[in-house]
Amino acid sequence: MEHLLHNILLLLVLSVAAVAAFRSFNLPPILGYLLVGALTGQYALGWLNDANEGFVLMGEVGVVFLLFAIGLEFSVKQFIAMRRTILGLGGMQVLLSTLSGLAIFVYFDMSWQGALIAAGALAMSSTAIVVKQLTDQAEMRAKHGQMALAILLFQDIAVVPFLVIIPVLAGDMASAQSATQITLDVLAAMALFATMMVVGHYTLRPLFHYIARAQSTELFNITVLLVALTAAWITESLGLSLALGAFLAGMLLSETEYKHQIESEIRPFRDILMGIFFITVGAKLNVAVLPELWQPILLLVLGLLVGKSLLVAFLARYFSADDGTALRTGLVLAQGGEFGFALMALALTNGLLGAKESQIVLATIIISMALAPLIIRYNDAITKRLLGKSYLRQSHNDTYEVSSAIQELDGHVLICGYRRMGQNLGRLLDQQGVPHAALDLDPLIVQAAWEAGDKVYFADAARPEILLAAGLARARMVIITMTDMEVAKRITESVRNTNADIPILVRIREDSYMEPLLALGATQVLPEMLEATVMIAENMLQQLGMSPDELLPLIEGIRSDGYKSLRSYYHGDKIKPTRIVGETFLHTFVLQPTDSANGKLISELDLERHGFSIKSLRRGDIRGDNPDTTMRLQAGDKLVLEGKADDFRKAENVLRVGGKISKISVA
Question: Taking the complete model, does pTM exceed 0.85, yes or no?
Fold first, then answer.
C-alpha cells in the first residue's frame, strides 16, 4: 500500500507538471497524460506495469467513465435531426476506414482479429481535440464543423460494438461456432440495450425526483455513480463490456431533466479517471523501440493523415457538401482519437495484438493527435492552397445566394445570431416596421424560422464577403447576439473592417469582454449581468419614490460611463483560478503611520502606472468615492483599491514602502 501511494503521488506531481506545460503551449492535456505514462511505464521508469492491479483497475474504470461521459452527451433529438449525416456519412466513414485499414494490416501479415481492432482504432478521431479546436476558432457552427460533429457522434457510438466484440475475438476464432457466438452476443447486446432503455425510462426519473427532494449533493453524486457502475456491472456479468453498460447509463441519464446537473457533478470523476486511463495507455508505449520502428510508424502516420482526410472528403462530397467544405471536414478529422486508445488497451489485455504491432499503432495515434491542432487551425489556409480558384468560386456562390435574397433590403438591421435574443429582437423590429435580416449557422433554427416567414439565412457572419452580400453597406445597424465570445469578436472585427461607420451593438454575458470588443470597433457592448443590475436598480429606485427626472440621468450616466461603477466588486474567497484576463477586483487597505504613502498627495503616488487606482476613501465616518488626486493621505485612512487581482501585492508594496522591494504580503 505504501509503495502504491508513493507511485500515485509521483504520478500526480508529473501529471500536474505535464498538463500545465502542454496547456501553456495550447496542446491537449491528453498528450501530457500520455507522456507521463510513457515515462513511468514498464518500458521506462517501471512505476507502472501490468502486474500492478491497482492501476489496471483504475484504467478499466477510466474506460467506463469515458463511455459514460459520451452517453451523457448523446442526445436522441440531435440524432434524429442529423440522422442522415450521422448514420450515412458517419457510418460509411467508420466502415470504409476500418475495411481499408483491415486490408492494409492483413497484407502486412497481421492476424485479421488484431487487424480489425487496429483498423477500428485508427478509424476513430479525437472528439476532445476537434471540438475544442473548432470552438476556439469559432468554426463549430460552420458547415465543415457540423459535418465533423456528425461523424464524431457516430464514431462515439461505433466504439461500443468494437468494445463488445473484442472479448469474443479473443476466444477460439477457429471454431465453427465463432460467427454464431458473435451474432448471439450482438443480439444479446441489442436486447439488453432495449430492456435497459425501457426500464431506465420508467425508473430513473422518479428515482432522481426523490433524490433531488433530499437536496443533498453527496446523495445525488452517490446515486449517479451507483446507476453508472450498476449498469456497467450488469453488462460485464453477462459477458459483455463494462463500457457498454456505462454508455447505456449515460444515455439513460441524459434523458432526464437532471442531465446538466449530472454533467457538472460527474465532471471531476470523469476528468481524473480519464487522466489515469490515458496514463495507463501511455505506459504501454515502448519509447526505446521507436527508433527501429520509425519507418512503419512514419508510413502509417502519413497514411492516416492523408488517406483518412481524403476518404472523409470524398464521402462528405458524396453527401452534397461543396469541395471546400468536404476537404476542410477531412482535414479536421485526419487523426487518431482517444477511443482508439480504449480499443488498443482492451485489445492488448485480450492478447489480440503483439507488442511490436501495438507500439506501431499507439505511436501513430499519438503522433497524429499531436499534429491535429495545427492541421485544424490551418484547415482553411490548406484548403485554399490545394483547391485554389474552385474554393474561392464556391465562396462567391455562397455570397451570391445571400445577396440575391437580401438585395431588396435597404436601411435594414442585420442580426448576427438568431437564437432566443435574435428572434425576440426580430419580432420587435417587425412590430415597428423596421426591415431586418438575420444570419445564423444552426440549420434547424434557420429552417424553422424560414418556414415561419422570417428573413434568416444560413451563412457565416464572420466572413466579410457574407456581410457584404447581406447588404452591410446599406444596413442601418448590426446587432451581434452570439454567446460565443470568440465568434462575436470575429464578427465585430469583420463588420468594422468592412464598414467603418455602421453602429455595432454586441450582447455579452461577461463584462470582462467589453474592452476587447470595444477595441475591435463595437459601438456599444451590453453585458447581461450589468444590464440586469441597472434594470433592478431602476425599479428599486422607482419604488423608493425617485422621480423619472432624477432617475433618467442616473441610469444614463451608468451606461455612458461603460458601467464602470458596477464592474468592480469584492470577490471574497470564491475567486476562480481561471479568471478572465482584464477582470477587476476591489481590495481594502488600511494606511498605517509607518507607511510610505502617509502624508503624501494621491497624485504623488502615481498609482495608475502600477495598474490600480483608489476607488473610494474612508476617513473616520466619512467616505468619498473617486477622491481628488490633490488630497493628502493620512494614517488610518481606509483605501478601497481597484485593479486586477495580481496587482494588489504591488499596490500594497507601493503604499507601504514606496515601491521598493518588500517581503510584505497581501493581507
Answer: no
